[in-house]
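G., the chain you wanted modeled:
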Amino acid sequence: MSQSVTRHDGRRPDQLRTISFEANIAPHATGSVLVSFGLTRVICAATIEPNVPTWMKQQKIPGGWLTAEYAMLPYSTLDRKPREISKGKADGRNIEIQRLIGRSLRAVINLQKLGQNTLWLDCDVLQADGGTRTAAITGAYLAARLAVQKLLDARRLPENPITDSVAAVSAGIFGGQPLLDLNYIEDKGAAVDANIVMTGRGQFVEVQSAGEEATFTQDQLTALLALAQSGLKELASLQSAFLARQLLK
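Predicted structure as tokens:
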């Protein structure tokens, strides 16, 4: 793949948008992070409740639980997005994404070591410019790690239940070119788009890929996965550096 091609925002095909993390954005949460992928901004808040779902109690399942909720705030898009409650029904896209966030985080947590606690992850999109689900997963991990550290420091947990980091990134084919970390213009016009979730140790959690009224070859899929793996390695490094700063305070 040629690296000389530049995008409308000046990035190379294999370049992430500017990534940033800001801690403690939601003071009443156990842990929280504002994550930015370029102009996409998501508040990720982790709240730990000393209880587990009724179905776990009824089935006598040991350990704790982790679940996620995702929403786009009405002013996060160019045209106001109505709240779910005003429509009287759940948004199918939101449900799909929050399930993805939950699966991604459960892949890197030992629920039995979480104790009789539920870890809630609330991801609210402040500004959407493509890749909101991948930003949410990347930030949700950080919020969860900060929340768990508070329980460890308070001796409410004997050991860290989180086994690895996890992050996500998009990739797609736009104008015949494989690109990493699509913004809205690229995502909207992509012939193929993919969302890839991976652990810090390089294990895939989920690979979602689809042609938008198009098909794609195995070579194109391989190129997208290679782009994603490179970007996810960089994201894992950024996550690690952020946590090192926060946990040393």
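The longest helix spans residues 218-247.

Shout if anything looks off.
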